[in-house]
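Minimal example, chain plus dTDP-4-keto-6-deoxyglucose.
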Amino acid sequence: MKIELIPLQIHGDERGSLVALETEKNIPFEIRRVYYLFDTKKDVIRGYHAHKALKQVAIAVRGSCKFTLDDGHERVDVILNNPAQGLLIESFMWREMSEFSDDCVLMVLADSQYDESDYVRDYEQFKKMAG
Ligand code: T46
Protein backbone atom coordinates (compact mmCIF):
# COMPACT_ATOMS: atom_id res chain seq x y z
CA MET A 1 0.00 0.00 0.00
CA LYS A 2 1.32 3.42 -0.92
CA ILE A 3 1.40 5.88 1.98
CA GLU A 4 1.53 9.51 0.90
CA LEU A 5 3.16 11.94 3.31
CA ILE A 6 2.93 15.50 2.04
CA PRO A 7 5.89 17.72 2.96
CA LEU A 8 4.69 21.14 4.13
CA GLN A 9 7.05 24.03 3.73
CA ILE A 10 8.00 25.82 6.95
CA HIS A 11 8.32 29.58 6.68
CA GLY A 12 10.68 30.18 9.53
CA ASP A 13 12.61 33.14 10.80
CA GLU A 14 13.95 34.36 14.12
CA ARG A 15 10.36 34.79 15.37
CA GLY A 16 9.43 31.14 14.85
CA SER A 17 7.70 28.97 12.26
CA LEU A 18 4.61 29.12 10.09
CA VAL A 19 3.05 26.54 7.77
CA ALA A 20 0.37 27.52 5.21
CA LEU A 21 -2.18 25.02 3.91
CA GLU A 22 -3.70 25.89 0.56
CA THR A 23 -6.17 24.12 -1.70
CA GLU A 24 -4.44 22.56 -4.71
CA LYS A 25 -1.05 24.01 -3.69
CA ASN A 26 -0.04 21.60 -0.96
CA ILE A 27 -3.46 20.08 -0.18
CA PRO A 28 -4.68 17.99 -3.15
CA PHE A 29 -8.39 18.88 -2.83
CA GLU A 30 -10.68 21.77 -2.01
CA ILE A 31 -10.68 22.20 1.77
CA ARG A 32 -14.31 22.25 2.96
CA ARG A 33 -13.89 21.36 6.63
CA VAL A 34 -11.21 21.49 9.30
CA TYR A 35 -11.44 19.76 12.68
CA TYR A 36 -8.95 18.83 15.36
CA LEU A 37 -8.64 16.24 18.09
CA PHE A 38 -6.99 17.09 21.39
CA ASP A 39 -7.04 15.94 25.04
CA THR A 40 -7.25 12.35 23.78
CA LYS A 41 -7.00 10.02 26.73
CA LYS A 42 -4.18 7.52 27.13
CA ASP A 43 -4.85 4.05 25.66
CA VAL A 44 -7.78 5.33 23.60
CA ILE A 45 -8.12 4.12 20.02
CA ARG A 46 -10.27 6.33 17.79
CA GLY A 47 -11.52 5.91 14.26
CA TYR A 48 -12.51 2.30 13.49
CA HIS A 49 -14.15 3.32 10.25
CA ALA A 50 -13.59 4.07 6.58
CA HIS A 51 -15.16 6.69 4.36
CA LYS A 52 -16.93 5.97 1.09
CA ALA A 53 -15.88 9.21 -0.58
CA LEU A 54 -14.18 11.56 1.89
CA LYS A 55 -10.53 12.49 1.36
CA GLN A 56 -8.55 14.00 4.18
CA VAL A 57 -5.10 15.20 5.22
CA ALA A 58 -4.09 14.69 8.87
CA ILE A 59 -1.36 16.73 10.54
CA ALA A 60 -0.06 16.35 14.10
CA VAL A 61 0.37 20.07 14.69
CA ARG A 62 1.60 19.25 18.18
CA GLY A 63 2.75 16.01 19.81
CA SER A 64 2.38 12.64 18.16
CA CYS A 65 -0.01 9.80 17.43
CA LYS A 66 -0.14 6.62 15.40
CA PHE A 67 -2.35 6.17 12.34
CA THR A 68 -3.09 2.66 11.20
CA LEU A 69 -4.34 2.60 7.62
CA ASP A 70 -5.88 -0.51 6.10
CA ASP A 71 -6.96 -0.82 2.46
CA GLY A 72 -8.68 -4.15 3.05
CA HIS A 73 -5.57 -6.11 2.04
CA GLU A 74 -2.74 -4.57 4.04
CA ARG A 75 -2.36 -2.59 7.26
CA VAL A 76 0.34 0.07 7.64
CA ASP A 77 1.23 2.08 10.76
CA VAL A 78 2.37 5.66 10.37
CA ILE A 79 3.64 7.82 13.21
CA LEU A 80 2.65 11.46 12.87
CA ASN A 81 4.91 13.71 14.90
CA ASN A 82 5.83 16.53 12.56
CA PRO A 83 3.74 19.69 11.99
CA ALA A 84 5.42 20.03 8.59
CA GLN A 85 4.08 16.71 7.30
CA GLY A 86 0.54 15.78 6.22
CA LEU A 87 -0.79 12.26 5.85
CA LEU A 88 -3.11 11.90 2.85
CA ILE A 89 -6.02 9.59 3.65
CA GLU A 90 -7.83 8.55 0.50
CA SER A 91 -11.40 7.27 0.52
CA PHE A 92 -11.97 3.58 1.31
CA MET A 93 -9.18 3.40 3.87
CA TRP A 94 -9.98 1.90 7.24
CA ARG A 95 -8.31 4.05 9.94
CA GLU A 96 -7.50 3.67 13.59
CA MET A 97 -5.69 6.36 15.59
CA SER A 98 -3.85 5.45 18.80
CA GLU A 99 -0.84 6.19 21.00
CA PHE A 100 -1.75 9.86 21.34
CA SER A 101 0.80 11.83 23.32
CA ASP A 102 -0.68 13.93 26.14
CA ASP A 103 -0.05 17.10 24.17
CA CYS A 104 -1.23 15.79 20.78
CA VAL A 105 -3.30 18.11 18.63
CA LEU A 106 -4.28 16.27 15.46
CA MET A 107 -5.69 18.57 12.79
CA VAL A 108 -7.61 17.11 9.87
CA LEU A 109 -8.51 18.84 6.60
CA ALA A 110 -11.43 17.33 4.71
CA ASP A 111 -12.84 17.73 1.22
CA SER A 112 -16.46 17.77 2.33
CA GLN A 113 -18.73 18.61 5.20
CA TYR A 114 -19.60 16.16 7.95
CA ASP A 115 -21.89 13.42 6.66
CA GLU A 116 -22.56 10.37 8.81
CA SER A 117 -23.87 8.43 5.77
CA ASP A 118 -20.32 8.52 4.30
CA TYR A 119 -18.96 6.41 7.20
CA VAL A 120 -18.49 2.64 6.99
CA ARG A 121 -18.21 1.51 10.60
CA ASP A 122 -18.39 -2.25 10.13
CA TYR A 123 -15.02 -3.80 9.26
CA GLU A 124 -16.51 -6.84 7.48
CA GLN A 125 -18.71 -4.58 5.36
CA PHE A 126 -15.64 -2.45 4.59
CA LYS A 127 -13.67 -5.53 3.48
CA LYS A 128 -16.51 -6.57 1.16
CA MET A 129 -16.80 -3.05 -0.29
CA ALA A 130 -13.02 -2.78 -0.73
CA GLY A 131 -13.10 -6.00 -2.73
C1 T46 B 1 -11.76 10.53 10.64
C2 T46 B 1 -10.86 10.56 11.82
C3 T46 B 1 -9.43 10.86 11.45
C4 T46 B 1 -18.98 16.27 14.05
O1 T46 B 1 -20.06 16.69 14.54
N1 T46 B 1 -18.41 16.90 12.98
C5 T46 B 1 -17.25 16.48 12.42
O2 T46 B 1 -16.78 17.09 11.45
C6 T46 B 1 -16.59 15.33 12.96
C7 T46 B 1 -15.29 14.82 12.36
C8 T46 B 1 -17.17 14.71 14.03
N2 T46 B 1 -18.34 15.18 14.57
C9 T46 B 1 -18.90 14.51 15.75
C10 T46 B 1 -19.43 13.11 15.52
C11 T46 B 1 -19.19 12.42 16.83
O3 T46 B 1 -20.30 12.65 17.68
O4 T46 B 1 -17.86 14.38 16.72
C12 T46 B 1 -17.99 13.16 17.43
C13 T46 B 1 -16.69 12.35 17.35
O5 T46 B 1 -16.49 11.89 16.00
P1 T46 B 1 -15.88 10.46 15.65
O6 T46 B 1 -16.30 9.48 16.67
O7 T46 B 1 -16.22 10.15 14.23
O8 T46 B 1 -14.31 10.75 15.81
P2 T46 B 1 -13.08 9.85 15.35
O9 T46 B 1 -11.89 10.43 16.01
O10 T46 B 1 -13.33 8.41 15.56
O11 T46 B 1 -12.95 10.08 13.75
C14 T46 B 1 -12.66 11.37 13.24
C15 T46 B 1 -13.53 11.67 12.01
O12 T46 B 1 -14.91 11.51 12.35
C16 T46 B 1 -13.21 10.77 10.85
O13 T46 B 1 -13.83 11.25 9.67
O14 T46 B 1 -11.34 10.16 9.55
O15 T46 B 1 -11.29 11.46 12.87
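The two ends are 15 Å apart (CA to CA). The first helix runs from residue 123 to 130.
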